[in-house]
Amino acid sequence: MPVAQADEAAEAERKATLVFNLLLFVEWPADVLPPQAPSLALCIDRASPLRPAVQALDGRIVRHWRLDVRDLASAGSWSACHAALLDSPSNAPERPPVGTLLIADGDAAPSIAAAVVLHRDGDRVRFDIDLATVRQSRLQVSSKLLRVARRVTE
Hints:
By secondary structure, the protein is α/β, with parallel strands linked by helices. Helices cover 25% and strands 29% of the residues. The chain has a single domain (3-153), classed as Rossmann fold (3-Layer(aba) Sandwich), CATH 3.40.50. It has helices spanning 3-23, 51-55, 131-136, 143-148, and strands spanning 26-27, 39-44, 61-62, 65-71, 83-86, 101-105, 116-121, 124-130, 140-141, 151-153. The chain has an eight-stranded mixed beta sheet with strand order 3-4-2-5-6-7-8-10. It has a two-stranded antiparallel sheet with strand order 1-9. The longest helix has 21 residues, at 3-23. The N and C termini lie far apart (42 Å).
């Protein structure tokens, strides 16, 4: 594998791992994601370069839910996605959907307004949190997550 492809694959894995860890610190309303629900749906575009790394997370446990990685286009509606990883403005909704944590790859699509935006920072991946967008989605994020964010805005 050429060095550039290996670097891209490693970055995709870092971003996928960060997305998984972010999900551990988000609270969904019980009417959106009941505690007894069998899975938490993470939607991603089928053409996303992050898809293989995110797909590798399918079936892992997020608190007490099984992570279900779904194709964004075939999800049917935003209500079928508890979280969505977006890397293209063409997939982004005009308003934050209620009950869906929008996570944007800020390196691929810096113009997407999302609750969480991922950024490459040297060999690391950092994230910003927009609390207004989190609240519009009726979600809550842990104070632990807020403390490790690169930037938190209201």
